[in-house]
Amino acid sequence: MSHTAHIPSHRKPRRSASKLALRAGVAGGVLSTIAVAGAAGPANAEPVTETIEMPTLGSLDTELASAVSASAEAAKQEALDLSLKAQEDAAIAKAAKEAKKAKAEADRKAEAAKAEAERAEKARAEAQERASRTEARTTLSTSSSGSSSSSSSQVATGSAAAIVAFARAQIGDAYVMGGTGPNSWDCSGLVQAAYRQAGIDLPRVSGSQSSMGTSVSLSNLQPGDILYWGSRSGSYHVAIYVGGGKYVGAQNPSTGVVERSLDWDMPSGAVRIR
Q: What stretches of 147-202 show up as alpha helix (H) in DSSP?
């Protein structure tokens, strides 16, 4: 017999292996249970059981799908908002461009209408001027035909003769603005010098010269009368009537002092200073 056969063992009783029961309803989604039994107690002791609810894969899939769907919906809404904003911006830009184009067209039409009105007014004024000159020519022609002998044989006498003689003596001289002789003249400078030969002092400028004396009709002219163009108090050109339907005047830098027919440039009126 062994010497140790009856020696009682001092080891603690070896615990039985803990029981771990895991029931995971992976496919079916049931509750999983973990049962832990302690082996330290008596053999017939009740096992301690703890139940833990674990999420199922089916539940995780559902939540993940819901989150993905919500994210996709938000991205879709954001894209839609951006698209609408882009459309609004494009519509605003198009409207502004069309408004600018319409304004430019309206301005162009207004300018064209203004220019047309100015042309019409100018044409009307020119037509009135032509009509006035035609009427004057007709009156002068009628008067001349009624007394052709006296018109063609108008002879300057007295002071008028001196005025006409001086004016004709300057034919061919140059025209110079502000000229008062002896070899260059402007229109009023020539008239002033011619009248000085008759002992008559006249103002220097054409507007003042035509304002003096007595107004006479173009159909009743006499040699030595002053012809004017423009209004009587605001004439811009003067010359001397020399008889026979003609006048002598310092016209412009191109022609100088010349003798012309009244028909070449019909004057606006005449004055007599004697």
A: 148-152, 159-169, 187-196
The identity of residue 189, as a single letter, is G
Question: How far is C-alpha 177 from the chain's CA centre?
Answer: 41
β strands within the chain, DSSP E: 19-22, 33-37, 49-51, 174-175, 184-185, 214-216, 226-230, 235-243, 246-252, 256-261, 269-272
| Distances from the Cα of 25 to the Cα of 73, 101, 162, angstroms | 33, 74, 145
Query: 191: number of CA atoms within 13 Å, CB side?
Result: 31
Nearest to 137 by CA among 125, 145, 148: 145
Alpha-carbon gap, residue 149 to 140, rounded angstroms: 14
Please state the pTM of the whole predicted model.
Answer: 0.47
DSSP structural state of residue 222: -
- Alpha carbon distances (Å) from 47 to 17, 37, 44: 12, 5, 9
Share of the chain above pLDDT 90, in %: 41
Burial of 230 (0-12, 13-18, 19+ CB in 10 A): middle
At 198, is the pLDDT very low, low, confident or very high (cuts 50, 70, 90)?
very high
Tokens of 248: 């002598």
Q: At what angle do helices 187-196 and 159-169 cross, to 10 degrees?
A: 140
177 touches 199 (CB < 8 A): no
Q: Prior bond to 47 cis, omega within 30?
A: no
Cβ partners under 8 Å of residue 39, min gap 6? 15, 16, 17, 18
